[in-house]
Amino acid sequence: MKALDSIYQVRNGRRSKRVSSYDRSGLNKDSIAIPAGEVRALANIEGAGIIRHIWITINCADRMIRRNAVLRMYWDGESEPSVESPIGDFFGQGWGENYNFASLPLAAAPQRGQALNCYFPMPFGNGAVIAVENESSEPIESFYYCIDYEEHDELPEEAGRFHAQWRRELTGADPIDGENEGLELVPQQPNCTDAGNYVFADIRGKGHFVGINYYVDNPSPMWYGEGDDMWMIDGEAWPGSMHGTGTEDFFNTAWCPKEIYSHPYFGCAKVNGETGFLGRTHVYRFLLEDPVYFEQSLRASIEHGHNNVLTLDLATVAYWYQIEPHQPFAKLPGKEGRQNMPILNLHDIHYWRHEYRKAFGNGTTLWGNEWRPKRD
């Protein structure tokens, strides 16, 4: 089927609608305010339909508002959200930052990524609620939004509901061998389980997985990848139906990339500018042509370095469709649990060198390569 193959078809039983923050008085104050600590419903739609597009932009004194404001969506009168994520991470911006991001279903558009867009279709059969909670200590002075949707007389029974969940973990190095990715400080060990992996989706029900935004903050100049993605479908044992070959491979790139690249389905939206791979990187992949189907459950995970040997601050948003009801999400960490790890800088690297010097007897002409094995 071609991308525009059905655009000419005139269909019955659909009506186009929009919910927005336009100024009801007819003036130009086309936004709402969300005081600190309060929740605002952006949309409360009755009946059946499909949300087709969401656009948002935010003005707030809090520079971390993209992490401190939480987006939630509820379908068909449910009490537990089907979407729950810090608003920036959902739209493709990590660490509370604003930067441009382009993909087919999600985009953060100029100026400087301040226009947040979503094109994931979101069906509902008996009502939809979209809400934002401002967990910042600062008010959101102006919150602009447009939510474009179709009213439908009815939806097919097989119409899955859209889901998205934010997760985060500070992963640990190997307690004995330490961080050993790629440098072979000690012989690498095999990993024949997914037990120690970073889990980005743990789903119960019938549906299909369609994408992930992956935000990694690396406290080391070492390459953060080589983590295999592993997919345990419907309760199967390791190695499962799908087993990957490395982090950059899963994100459709190769050979430890460090450059901005935007494809509609995958790419590197942000790369670190520090020494080696020190710092923050955002990669993404949307499985729109190749979704992962499951009948009963899905456990999707990725190693943090081969055999899970790296300390990383990993945060992800997973996107999928499933037949309701869904398994309630684990409690979202509060604002304090969503703040960034400190940015490491040249002073930190100098202190690492200071400790290195002490480890090698405080020599006055130590260069930094003394750890290397001497060769005949």
Oligomeric description of these chains: single chain
Radius of gyration: 23 Å
Overall form: globular
Low-confidence stretches: none
Tell me the count of domains: 2
Count of DSSP E strands? 23
Helix residue percentage: under 10%
Largest sheet: 11 strands, mixed
Distance between the termini: 63 Å
Helices and strands, in order, run as: EEEEHEEHEEEEEEEEEEEHEEEEEEH
Per DSSP, the total helix count is 4
Predict the CATH topology of the largest domain. Jelly Rolls
Strand content: 35-45%
Which CATH architecture of the largest domain? Sandwich
Folded structure, characterized:
The chain is mostly beta strands and 376 residues long. The chain folds into two domains: 139 residues, Jelly Rolls (Sandwich), CATH 2.60.120.1390; 166 residues, Jelly Rolls (Sandwich). It contains four helices and 23 strands. Strands 3, 5, 6, 11, 13, 15, 18, 19, 20, 21 and 23 form an eleven-stranded mixed β-sheet that branches. The chain is globular, with a radius of gyration of 23 Å. The termini are far apart. The model has no long low-confidence stretch (mean pLDDT 94). This is DUF2961 domain-containing protein. Pfam families: DUF2961. It comes from Paenibacillus rhizovicinus.
